[in-house]
Amino acid sequence: MKSLSDLLENNKVWAEKIEQTSPGFFEQLSAQQTPEILWIGCSDSRVPANQIVGLLPGDVFVHRNVANIVNQTDLNCLSVIQYAVEVLKVKHIVVVGHYGCGGVKTALHNERNGLIDNWLRNIKDTYASYQAELEGITDESQRVDRLCELNVMQQVMNVSQTTVVQEAWSKGQNLTVHGWVYSIKNGLITNLDVSIQNNEATNTIYKIS
Q1: Rounded CA gap, 60 and 63, in Å?
Q2: What is the pLDDT along the chain (209 residues), one digit of tens a residue?
Q3: Catalytically annotated residues
């Protein structure tokens, strides 16, 4: 690992390169941020939001946590969603998991890991809902990857059930929630085709009229 001073030097080189390529970039960037995408991803250091979709700073509003979970009591995540939807007026919320996720893998086992076990309870609930399918997969890595997909699908639903998103849809705001999974092995994203753009796909008990 490089020293922190090396990182600071890298920052100078990076900033100079950006400014040479796009003069005035940072001046324009500092004036406002107008991203159309909120990215909800995993904290894993190998899954950098902007880089893997080829976008520059300012193009993606990002929230990351262990295993890309949208918990209805997580005020941090909910505040990010509210700001993105109500202030930035993003058009897309993308929940992005990744194959081989350590959080998902941990949730598959019954070991004690401390505080994180409470956080991963959400994934265990998803496992319980699809237990027959998952236990029918004999290869553990394939089982983990399938649970990674199911977890993303559940978080897409969780996002769509938040009061912020429900309120936006009730006002006719153009907003779609998507689910993707990234592969660290080849750098490619898989679209799970679980996009939701209104509350018609939401269970009636969650709907706000």
Answers
A1: 10
A2: 678 999 899 999 999 998 998 899 898 888 878 899 999 999 999 999 999 999 988 999 999 999 999 999 999 999 999 999 999 999 999 999 999 999 999 999 989 999 999 999 999 999 999 999 999 999 999 999 999 999 999 999 999 999 999 999 999 999 999 999 999 999 999 999 999 999 877 766 666 66
A3: 42, 44, 46, 98, 101
**Structure-token pair, residue 132:** 């027959």
The two tokens of residue 208 are: 């706000």
Structure tokens at 77: 């995540």
Write the DSSP string, 128-145.
HHTHHHHHT--SHHHHHH
Q: How far apart are CA 187 and CA 114, in angstroms?
A: 31
The closest alpha carbon to 38, from 49, 27, 22, belongs to 49
In the chain, what is the greatest distance between 2 CA atoms, to the nearest angstrom?
56
Sequence-ordered list of residues with C-beta below 8 angstroms from that of 57, at least 6 positions apart, any chain:
29, 50
d(CA 14, CA 10): 6
